[in-house]
Amino acid sequence: MANPIISVENLGKRYRLRHQQQSYETLRDSLTATAKSWLAGRLATAIPSEEDFWALKDVSFEINQGDVVGVIGRNGAGKSTLLKILSRITEPTTGRIRLKGRVASLLEVGTGFHPELTGRENIFLNGAILGMTKTEIRRHFDEIVAFSEVERFLDTPVKHYSSGMYTRLAFSVAAHLRSEILIVDEVLAVGDAAFRHKCLAKMQSAAEEDRTVLFVSHDLAAIQKLTEKTLLLSHGRLQSFADTATCLAEYVASCSRSDATNLPRPLNSCPVILTELRLEDSTGRNTRSLKLTEPFDVRIRFSCEQPLRNAVIGIAVHTPNDVALFATHTNDFGTLLECSPGDWEAVCHVAPNLLRAGKYRISVGVLDHNLLVYHVADACRLSIEPILLDGSGHYDERIGELYMPMRWAVAPATLQSN
Fold it and tell me: What's the rounded Cα separation, in Å, for the pair 278 and 285?
């Protein structure tokens, strides 16, 4: 019979939201209200309205020693709240958890380190918090420093570290100081691609050492590669807890349905309704994560309420900080569309080796007679994963926003005589 190292029963976390009701009144109204309240023997005060928000509700599951478990869900699903409760940073409102062993966690940049202490001092502080002796910490000290690659700044207060340096050291401490349970949130996204993959390899080796790992990420490729089981949260509730392939398929399907549902409805006068946008890999599978070397399709489904004449449908690709990388549309080769009322579908084929590794946003627009009649600024998001260079063990990192390989030819130079 399995002996769970993490047991969660009917877990709930409630926050009380206060909405301060304010009204804008004339001076006469304010004086009148004050006089009335004084005559009533009390001062007038603004009474805030309150409502309960359940970040988690009725969540139950068990995780066994040595399991590597992913935690996925849309923003606001309750992932970070769950990890904070498991890390004993916050208390649950209802239910209970049972943990067997020490917990090392990396939840967000700034958590767990004292900003005024140096990197060296924080390593010993974190070890002491985990209940380790100085001898145990010293035994792992050199490998912590080597993994984090911040040796030069080890005796500098961490308040002067960049977010990347901070993350390197924090993960290294959490991963190397002995704990039975390792919890890692999306904070790894702060690091560069090479360090993220180094961290994933370290979490894999931690699992091989029979440590339990919980990993939250929006990077579905990393979840698929690292984890065996996955928790899928939705609106604070546990939607599914199963093998990773099953949970990822369920999550992608729910995102697809949600994306179609959440696309903004146009005004009544708009002749176009965008009904669905899908990103598909070469097999036709709906996805949000692809390798740099993979082609993909952007499939746009829309409905015409009225005929479109000389119409153009296009997409634009942006970085997370809203830098437009490129745009393409159906008129790239001089073709204008004539769309009769009814349902239509447009597919844009995106070649491999175009977008470098990173996160992207895709917007969609429809024009009729050069007038923009429909536009969705953030229709969907895409993650492009890096690739390993052949035989080097290093990831292919390029300068610039686009990855555009060119044909090269290298040969010994031929000397020409005069």
Answer: 9
Number of domains the chain is built from: 2
Confidence band of 396 (pLDDT split at 50, 70, 90): low
Distance of alpha carbon 415 from alpha carbon 418, whole angstroms: 10
In 100-236, which ranges are E strands?
Answer: 103-106, 181-184, 212-216, 229-234
Q: Is residue 407 part of a domain?
A: no
pLDDT tens digits, 326-362: 888 888 877 788 888 888 889 999 988 888 888 888 8
Percent of the chain at pLDDT > 70 equals 78
Helix (H) or strand (E) holding 252: helix 244-262
Question: How many Cα neighbours within 13 Å face the side chain of 122?
Answer: 28
Lowest mean pLDDT: which of 5-9, 59-63, 245-249, 385-389? 385-389
What CATH number has the domain bearing residue 320? 2.70.50.60
Q: Kindly state whether residues 206 and 79 are assigned to the same domain.
A: yes
Q: Residues 6 or more apart from 61 whose CB is under 8 A from it?
A: 8, 231, 238, 241
> Going edge to edge, which strands form the sheet with 103-106?
103-106, 181-184, 212-216, 68-72, 229-234, 237-243
Nearest of 241, 257, 250 to residue 220 by alpha carbon: 250
Say if CB 292 and CB 396 are below 8 A apart: yes
Kindly indicate the confidence band of residue 416, based on its pLDDT and cuts at 50, 70 and 90.
low
CATH code of residue 241: 3.40.50.300
Q: How confident is the model at residue 59 (pLDDT cuts 50, 70, 90)?
A: very high
Domain that holds residue 148: 4-10+53-252
In angstroms, the CA 291 to CA 401 distance is: 16
